[in-house]
Amino acid sequence: MDANGFFKIVDRKKDMILVSGFNVYPNEVEGALAKHPEVAFVGVIGIPDEQSGEAVRAYVVPKSDKVTPEELREHCKKLLTAYKVPRTIEFRKEIPMTPIGKVLRKELRAEYLAAQGGKTGKGASH
After folding, report:
1. Contact yes or no for 58/86 (Cβ under 8 A)
2. N or C: which end of the chain has fewer CB within 10 A?
C-alpha cells in the first residue's frame, strides 16, 4: 500500500521473462494480445533462447480461423516495445487454467520443455 492507500498489482516474479536483460511481465503481453478482437484466451511464458537468454512465447485460443500468428505479432508491435513482442505464437484449442481462471504458466512451460526434450538452459531450440 502506498501513502495514498493504493495497492499496485504486479506479476509474480517467477513468471517474469528476462529478454536480453530486460524484464517482460507476461500479464502485459497477454493484455496486449487480448485486445485483438480475434483472441479468446492467451497465455505467455518465457522460453530458453541462445541469443537473448529467454524469448517470449504466446499460446492463443483464437475465436476463429481468420487470424494468423503474424497478424497478432503486428498487433503487438503497435502496443509493446519490440523486445516484448512474442517471438513465437502457437494456436491452441485451450489453455490450462486454474478454477478461478488464471493461466497455469507452469504447465505451459513444462509442456514446452518436454516437447524440446527437457532442455532447460540456454541453447535450447524452439
Report:
1. yes
2. N
Does residue 123 form part of some domain?
no
| Number of other CB atoms surrounding residue 124 within 10 Å | 16
Domain with 58, as residue range(s), is 13-115
CB 84 within 8 A of CB 55: no
Total tally of structural domains belonging to the chain: 1
Domain-embedded: residue 18: yes
Rounded Cα distance, 38 and 67, in Å: 6
Strand partners, 43: 59
User: d(Cα 105, Cα 113) in Å, to the nearest integer?
Assistant: 12
